[in-house]
Amino acid sequence: MKAAIFDGTEELKIRDLPIQEPKHDEVLIRIDSATICGTDQHILEKKFEAKPPVVLGHEFSGYVERVGSSVRICEPGDLVSVEPHVYCGCCKPCRLGKPHLCLDRLAWGINLNGGFEQFATVRMDTVYRVPDHLSGEEAALGEITGCCLNGIDRANVGIGDTVLILGGGAAGLILARLAELRGAAKIMISEPNAGRREQIRRFGYPDVIDPLNENLADIVLSATGGLGADVVIDAAGRPETAAQAVELACHAGRILFFGVMAPGKKIEIEPNRVFARELTIVGSIRNPFTHHRVMEIMPRLRLKDIVTHRFALDDIQEAFAAAKRGDGLKICIKPNG
Length: 337
Hints:
2 domains; alpha/beta; 28% helix; Rossmann fold; six-stranded parallel beta sheet
């Protein structure tokens, strides 16, 4: 089979690899769709650790090809989504019921071969059957949607909230969909990319702000009677948006740092503002026990148009260039055509 190998350099290499036959507790998947995540880009830019040589791609789906003798949760022909993390079960976070913070975590597409290949062999406990009538591309969004659901839970979005999302890429739109389902009364999205702003409106969110040419603070305060947003989510992962989030939250507001910011980046926060307004600032990472919930709710999220660009495996460098430029929303690799 063909696979895109990360060898520690800034370009993935297409190589031939043997297909790994599944052990008794494993599932062999013919990859349908594997989407590019910001983490994949950070790995190539040496801003995030991976263990080369390894096949990247931790957001993927496919059809079951073969199963090990102990596997009962799926059978050949099933469309499945993969939750890519493998936890040790023995460290303190794991034993406190927070395995997503595992100190010895492994992950398909980070330090185990992931989805940018024609076939992947994964543990059965990371495999989830996909509801009928969902496409492989929607199924590949299970991992990022699970991360977004964790963020919405952490920010405690509720009925009647005004939610401001800074960054209108794929994650920003998925966060908006989930906030809508949780009962948010108003959703505002700040996005500097003109093409993405138009796509956001087509998804049904008219309150889209161009932060490069409009005064974001004035618009948010005007829309909230001078109070600020109940929930502010930094989905861009940039120092300037993280700092803005603190300034745009109302009294008793909740701030979520969701976007992945490169390690070492810092922002200035006025502690008195956090104190005087009783702000709550939380982070969220990965998707603890959310993948099953995501599969249950995915048919209601209407995410099929999140994938805007598709590339063959041989064209993966072009796909990463498109992702880096900010083309569209989600870039998808189709390893088997």
